Amino acid sequence: MNLYRIAPLVCTSALIALLAAPVWADGDAAAGKQKTWTCEGCHGIRDYRTAYPEVYSVPKLGGQSAGYIVKALQDYKAGARKNTTMGAIAAKLSDQDMADLAAYYAEAGSGK
Amino acid sequence: MTGIASTEHAMKKLISTSVYLFMFAASAAVFAGDYEAGKEKSAACSACHGADGNKPITPEIPRLGGQHYDYLEHALKAYRSGARENAMMSPMAKPLTDKEIKDVAWYFSRQTGLVTKY
């Protein structure tokens, strides 16, 4: 079973990546709540789906890891992760905006 | 005559019902994965994403528990095709079949975890 065999290697890599990780800006959840207007039109609607070029549900963000949200936004901004909508939105976000949004969404969600 | 007609009617009803049931089952099978198979396969994922995909071992690793089934499927297929790249996920996703992706995605989507926050 290939996956099981490489899992320890993968996790060791993850730990090394963690040690080498840059320090994120401190996020302010209350400030983040004021910045969600470009997010909630898709992520704030239950079971909302993308329309083009592929159809799938936009991911739930409530309770998501803050570090992952920041990383995803940075990757969209840098073009390392490609999605037309998210690329355009992330391009306008500062590091502080990303940290604030991540802090807000990382808190357990209010919806379902 | 009446007897033949009603038998014929019953047959038609039976056939159309079977067709509907088959279509329903087929569509469900396309949408859903196999929970037990996904659970078994998920051991490799949980090593980093945590039990039920809800306790990632580092802050940069996403939670998967409760995430949408079709989003998880989309993400794994993107890693597999190379459309999305990650040093850890790309090699994990490469060997997965469509069925394995569906099973694992289904398993994590059925856990309590992430919610739509607005």
Bin the helical content of chain A. Answer: 40-55%
CATH homologous superfamily name of the largest domain in chain B?
Cytochrome c-like domain
Whole-number mean pLDDT of chain A: 85
Order of helices and strands of chain B: HHHHHH
Question: Which chains have the largest interface?
Answer: A-B, 48 and 35 residues
So what's the overall shape of chain B?
A: elongated
Secondary structure tally: strands of chain A = 0
Which parts of chain B are unreliable, with pLDDT below 50 for 5 consecutive residues or more? none
* Helix vs. strand class of chain B: mainly alpha
Mean pLDDT of chain B: 89
Q: What is the CATH level 1 assignment of the largest domain in chain B? A: Mainly Alpha
Amino- and carboxy-terminal Cα gap of chain B:
64 Å
Summarize the structure.
Chain A has 112 residues and is an all-alpha fold.
Topology of this structure?
The complex is a heterodimer of chains A (about 110) and B (about 120).
Chain A: H1 2-19, H2 29-33, H3 40-43, H4 66-78, H5 84-90, H6 95-106
Chain B: H1 2-31, H2 35-41, H3 43-49, H4 69-81, H5 89-93, H6 98-109
Helix pairs in contact in B: 2-6, 4-6
Can you describe what's shown?
Chain A has 112 residues and is an all-alpha fold. Chain A is built from six helices and no strands. By secondary structure, chain B is mainly α. Chain B folds into two domains: 1-31; 33-118, Cytochrome c-like domain (Cytochrome Bc1 Complex, Chain D, domain 2, Orthogonal Bundle), CATH 1.10.760.10. Helix content of chain B is 63%, strand content 0%. The interface between A and B is large, with 48 and 35 residues.
